[in-house]
Amino acid sequence: MTGAPDGSPTGPAPPLSTVAVVGLGTIGGSLARDLAALGVRVLGYDANLDAVRAARAEGVVHRVMDPGLADAADADALVIAVPVAAAAEVLARVAARPGRLRLLTDVGSTKRRIVEIAERLGVGSRFVGAHPLAGDHRAGWAASRTGLFRGAPVYLCPSASTGPEASDAARWLWEAVGGRVEQLDAAEHDRRLAWTSHLPQALSTTLARTLAAAGIGAHDLGPGGREMTRLAGSSPDMWTGIALENADQMTAALTAFGAELDVLRDALARRDGETLHHWFAEGQGWCP
Amino acid sequence: MTGAPDGSPTGPAPPLSTVAVVGLGTIGGSLARDLAALGVRVLGYDANLDAVRAARAEGVVHRVMDPGLADAADADALVIAVPVAAAAEVLARVAARPGRLRLLTDVGSTKRRIVEIAERLGVGSRFVGAHPLAGDHRAGWAASRTGLFRGAPVYLCPSASTGPEASDAARWLWEAVGGRVEQLDAAEHDRRLAWTSHLPQALSTTLARTLAAAGIGAHDLGPGGREMTRLAGSSPDMWTGIALENADQMTAALTAFGAELDVLRDALARRDGETLHHWFAEGQGWCP
Questions:
Q1: Is there a contact between A218 and B288 if contact means CB atoms under 8 Å apart?
Q2: How far is A137 from chain B (nearest CA, A)?
Q3: pTM confidence score
Q4: Do A273 and B244 touch (CB under 8 A)?
Q5: What does the buried/exposed string (b/e) look like for B91-129 if buried means 16 or more CB atoms within 10 Å of the residue's CB?
Q6: Predicted confidence (pLDDT) per residue in B114-162, tens digit
């Protein structure tokens, strides 16, 4: 089947005819679905055999790679879509024999470390770190779906030695599935994501823990409370890796959050209606 | 038009044939819609004339009350659906001449103060404080809709002298529109809601303020971040009133939240992966 995820004509033939995707969870699985729909040959691998079988049975994955990932060397691009803590090991396995790969990339929520590792492994020129801001608290192939990246911000973080061919391939890949590509430095990425993604996740988990300790169950919540605790259902494996890699930037965001919270607590202690109104109104004023 | 909001047969004739609703916003407007659909005559009032006109034009409100609310004395029940800070004044206006009203009730997010005021105004025997846990950050008649209370928790808080007729009427009213009614003491209500509703709201506003100060815009967020900041769009008037009335209980919840957040900050400072994993996993474990 050929055609963009939204059914529109695709224009020129894809510059990446074969893409190897390692990790067929929400992000990797959704990317594989959209690429296959665009006529790209997808080589797939996942440690979870059920995921691999399902992706194969649904016609999304054309060939299943073996755990050594030697087949990836025959592809045009490799996408590492495993939790950040596991990505380095996958990259090392493929970097030992990158073959004809023009692009090695990932989808992790932190970018400084993986970009450094790519340089150190000698594949910096072919590497572009990527981070699509999509998906939710659900995990696994079952949560993957077509069109997940349509309109989503996708950050591309080149290494110091990324070449133009890898750069172009990364941009094509994400724009082909509908992402709003923005290139930025890995350090700037990690700083920004601490605020836009890691802070919200930390707050949702903190709220869930606070409610648990107070003996409050999810059924006691209204729609607002349910919404605020949904992210807490995200994978602890994934978030432990992100928190460790971006601990410095997350801490800065949490400190700023704590200061804003103290303004509220002080106003409550003084029963200061004017400050409270101003505090709520400024928060509302930020909202779109 | 007769029939329950979901279209099923209504069973026995409604014990409340006329209900006066003051405030035709998300909650009051939605309640008026469902009551009208059940065959109840709705008398309506809102300080916003556009809301009143729209409710009248859509056939939801049968008669518009004048600002003095004298007409309410002819109804079986009065529902005060204005922000908590304004509810006491409305109650005082009607309590001066309650006529044949069998039930006076409200929909505010805090319950201790309004229940005390009803006693003080001499209408305690006819009063039952109510709080449907429904609605979202949107406000006004335009945000009202049928079926809003279907499956929603609705807390009923009697006063010290509430009589059985008022009690039965309050229960009928909210069960008729699909609410899951739970009776509890006003003080216990305010304690519980500090955790389930006021804490989530405070965190969403704090997050929005933190992002604003960091120069982050809403368009920089992914789905998780957008979800976590949605409540921040709620009415500052409404939330200032709630925060002032429930300052003591909100402060207790915020203090507990701060302690959970400190566990995270300590673990990040030590780059303690084991504690971080445990911390995220316990939060996930609370999720349904």
A1: yes
A2: 8
A3: 0.85
A4: yes
A5: bebbbeebeebbbbbbbbbbbbbbbbbbeebebbbbbbb
A6: 999 999 999 999 999 999 999 777 889 999 999 999 999 999 999 999 9
